[in-house]
Amino acid sequence: QVQLVESGGGLVQAGGSLRLSCVASVRILSIVFMGWYRQAPGKERELVATIISGGSTAYADSVKGRFAVSRDNAKNTMYLQMNRLKPEDTGVYYCAAGLVSPNYWGQGTQVTVSS
After folding, report:
1. Sign of the Cα pseudo-torsion (102, 87, 16, 112, in order)
2. Which of 56, 63, 104, 115 is 20 to 30 A off residue 37, Cα-Cα?
3. What's the rounded Cα separation, in Å, for the pair 42 and 52?
4. What is the pLDDT of residue 71?
């Protein structure tokens, strides 16, 4: 069983930055797939960014050039650096991990971007 704990959410003005962290209960060297998802009020959960064990990353079109996902295997932590935030980035951000797709989820952290 893998436990994931997110942190770093909060309230920020449009144009600001936040860095989310996701700490895993196991060595993430053994985890191939890790990713960030978000869910806005009244909307379905959507993929934001993914990073696999080899370091390859992928992003939703809406965040390309503004967000950056990374992982620190020594700290068993994945990060999401979010810059130039927009009100439409508001939502609950979830960390996910698995073999080739999400099998484990964190509890989520709220990000609110005011205009």
Report:
1. negative
2. 115
3. 29
4. 95
Burial class (CB in 10 A: 0-12, 13-18, 19+), 17: exposed
pLDDT digits (tens, 9 = 90+) for 60-111: 999 999 999 999 999 999 999 999 999 999 999 999 999 888 999 999 999 9
Can you tell me the distance from the alpha carbon of 65 to that of 75, in angstroms, rounded to the nearest whole number?
26
- How buried is residue 60: exposed, middle or buried, by Cβ count under 10 Å (0-12/13-18/19+)? middle
Phi/psi for 99 (5° steps) reads -80, -60
Q: Quote the strand ranges of 40-108, DSSP E.
A: 46-52, 57-59, 67-72, 77-82, 91-98, 104-105
Q: DSSP assignment, residue 16?
A: -
Token pair 């620190």 in the structure block, residue: 72
- Rounded to an integer, what distance in angstroms lies between the CA atom of residue 5 and that of residue 44? 21
HSE (side-chain half, CA atoms, 13 Å) at 109: 19
Per residue in 102-113, pLDDT (tens digit) is: 999 999 999 999
